[in-house]
Amino acid sequence: MPEQNRDNRKQMTGNGPSSPRSALTILLPAALGMALIVWAWRWLLAIGLLLTIGGLWKYFQAKQQEHLEQLNEIFYQILQEHQGRVTTLDFAIAANITGLEAQKYLQERAGEFGADFEVNTSGGIVYCFSSVKVSGWDSSESPELKQLSGISADSAAKVPRSLNQSQLADRFGVHAGTIRNHRSKPDFIAWSRTKDPAGIAWTYSPDTKEFLPIQNG
């Protein structure tokens, strides 16, 4: 009987160390697997976020390009219908955009094509694109547009397309406050013509806070 007890104790002593080793054999790979999953998940999340941002950027870029192409199409259509003359209001209505967006677009095109400016009977600014060439239409072939070009290329090159208040004051040789006091008066166009060294009349745009030369009319 004592010998049997000793054998049982030996058997228990021999089996004791095997239990922790078995647990480590199971837990260690599981822990490494979890750590690998967490590490990979962070990278996958970062990559997914970058791909999402890149996709959104490309989408908005494509939308902006599509919108610009639509504006260009409407712009050239209006030029053909009105012999190269377009107002901010006409373009805003035709393109279904705000007045500020229409004015910004027309000013960019005016700078690109060297357009002239007029003031219509209602006091609005008319952009005169007398040198614009589009597919199927050449403005230089239009007799009406030829009559609009009252200034030679050399003299037009000397006239800035727009000036701020300080720049116009320097051109007129007066104080900036004088420009500020006269810009909202009904006779500002006639007054500016008398002050301009080249005899050019100017009009004030409250939206852009700039002064535009009236080279025709």
Topology, please?
Blueprint: H1 2-15, H2 18-81, E1 85-87, H3 88-95, H4 99-113, E2 116-119, E3 125-128, E4 133-134, E5 137-138, H5 143-148, H6 153-158, H7 165-172, H8 176-182, H9 188-195, E6 201-205, E7 210-214
Antiparallel strand pairs: 1-3, 2-3, 4-5, 6-7
| Helix proportion | 55-70%
What would the average pLDDT be, to the nearest integer? 75
C-alpha end-to-end distance = 130 Å
E-strand count: 7
- By CATH, the superfamily of one domain comes out as Winged helix-like DNA-binding domain superfamily/Winged helix DNA-binding domain
CATH fold category name of one domain: Arc Repressor Mutant, subunit A
Strand order of the largest sheet: 1-3-2
Strand content: 5-15%
Task: Return the CATH class of one domain.
Answer: Mainly Alpha
Order of helices and strands: HHEHHEEEEHHHHHEE
CATH architecture name of one domain: Orthogonal Bundle
Number of helices: 9
- Model regions low in confidence, pLDDT < 50 over at least 5 residues: 133-157
Biggest sheet layout: 3 strands, antiparallel
Overall geometric form: elongated
> Roughly how many Å is the radius of gyration?
38 Å
Which structural class fits the helix and strand makeup?
Answer: mainly alpha
